Amino acid sequence: MEPLDHFDRKILEIVQIDCQMKAEAIGERVGLSASAVQRRLKRMRDSGVITAEIALVDRKVAGNSMTFIAGMEIERENYDALSRFRVWLAKQEHIQQVYYVTGAVDLIAIITARDVGQYDEITAHLMSENPQIKRIHTNVVLKDIKLSMFVPIAD
Question: Is 141 helix (H, G, I), strand (E, B) or coil?
Fold first, then answer.
């Protein structure tokens, strides 16, 4: 992928806020024709700069009103299973995000569930399917302050 230019960066900022905006409207805002915007968007999709275009759904409306932040410690002698575990985590629908981190835990997962009981079922399944998990430290989200996947575009 060639470096992003000024137009690419402006287009990325716009589509992160509204990925359904028409190319004509984007073009008016950035000073390009609709066809030029479409070519740039296609190039950025094909090269992996744009990795997904999704709808953010209100968890409460979807019946998953609670969010949990789970810090997982992995058994040190079982680190070779970590890559299989990452693949397994990616397939779990209640696990929204997973980060491999430094610090007191090895992985941080953002998990959504309808209630504490369902979260307990999810983590029990998680631990029974993945014996390399030593411990899970859970934080319950009391209130969403900011929810965003917006990535600031560097100049």
Answer: coil
End-to-end CA distance of the chain: 16
Please state, in angstroms and rounded to a whole number, the distance separating the CA atoms of residues 82 and 60. 32
Tell me the pLDDT tens digit for each residue of 19-76. 999 999 999 999 999 999 999 999 999 999 999 999 888 888 999 999 999 999 988 7
**CA pair distance 113, 35, nearest whole angstrom:** 43
pLDDT at 7 over 90: yes
Give the whole-angstrom CA distance, residue 39 versus residue 45: 10
> Cα 100–90–98 angle (5° rounding)?
30
Pairing of strands 133-140, 107-113: unpaired
Closest CA to 47 of 13, 2, 12, 11: 2
Q: How far apart are CA 142 and CA 75, in angstroms?
A: 30
